[in-house]
Amino acid sequence: MSAAEAREQFLRIARLPDERIDLAEAALWVAAEQYEGLDVPGYLARLADFAERARPGVYAADTLEQRIAALNRFLYDEQSFRGNRSDYYDARNSFLNDVIDRRTGIPITLAVIYLSVAARLDLPVHGVGFPGHFLLKCAAPDEIVIDPFEGKLVTREQCEARWRATLGEDTPFDARALEPAPARQTLARLIGNLKQIFLAEQDWPRALACVERILVLAPDAPLELRDRGLLYARLECWSAATADLQRFLSLAPNDPTAAGVRQQLVELMRSSPRVH
Fold first, then answer.
1. 121-145 pLDDT tens trace
2. How many helices (H) and strands (E) does the chain have?
3. d(Cα 142, Cα 165) in Å, to the nearest integer?
4. How many CB atoms lie within 10 A of CB 3?
5. Residue ranges of the alpha helices (H) in 153-255?
6. Over 70: is that where the pLDDT of 273 sits?
7. Residue 66, by phi and psi: left (phi above 0), alpha (psi -120 to 50) or beta?
8. Average pLDDT over residues 28-45
9. Is the pLDDT score of 249 beyond 50?
10. From residue 80, how far is each of 13, 116, 119, 149, 150 by CA, in Å?
11. Which residues, 6 or more positions from 245, have their beta carbon under 8 angstroms from its beta carbon?
């Protein structure tokens, strides 16, 4: 399957109601643009196989907390999934096929695998878009928070400490930060990680592809419109760049970057004879 066909498959999923979005499948179609011919059904079958192999141990447990512990043992001890501490920003950590193959990833891709397996085992686990580090939570009967990077439980006190470490010691903890993350938000965060990697590598076409996918999920996201406009300018697509940057300014005129964007627009106007 070509990259264009993979994009169409991603768009098909992204247009679904949030509750019907399969995060693992969507993430694999993102990867399929990078890896042409990727066997998406085959990788989904591997996730289903993980669930079947984990099922006896999980179902033998009496309580929900014990079932979560059994799934953690299966994924992190028996299957050796782990967070990549040595090369956190390796792009392969954000491609779900690579994470499945290498058993190595970052919090959000490991969380997608965890969620896919847990759903097949009827475990009520949800993703949590926590600042700085994606988490998982099982809400009933008692709150169970899981760090997918480590495969360990996290206490409320540890969550609050992480909150302060990320946002500042004087920032009051907001319990809403542990609410379930919608599927679109989770996908946008996963793709946003890839975008940052490609921006750092100055790979403008791949960074643009990431922004385009995010804007399918959140069409009026001001910062993504800004970034797409700036990437269009990098690629000398002047009229498209101008339209996106003007749209950004109409949505977020007081954003801290707005002044710089206005200056960029002035420079783009000077390039208008070369618009294509």
1. 999 999 999 998 999 999 777 789 9
2. 12, 6
3. 25
4. 13
5. 156-167, 183-200, 204-217, 222-234, 238-251
6. no
7. alpha
8. 96
9. yes
10. 30, 17, 20, 12, 11
11. 225, 226, 229, 230, 233, 261, 264, 265, 268
Query: DSSP code of 221?
Result: -
Q: Which of 22, 82, 77 is nearest to 47 (CA)?
A: 22
Cβ–Cβ < 8 Å for 104, 93: yes
Enter the tokens of residue 123: 């475990």
Q: Are 64 and 138 in contact (CB under 8 A)?
A: yes
- Distance (Å, rounded) from C-alpha 10 to C-alpha 26? 6
Position 1 scores a pLDDT of 73
| Kind of pairing between the strands at 125-128 and 104-105 | unpaired
Amino acid at 49: D
> Which pLDDT score, from 0 to 100, does residue 276 have?
47
Does pLDDT of 275 surpass 50? no
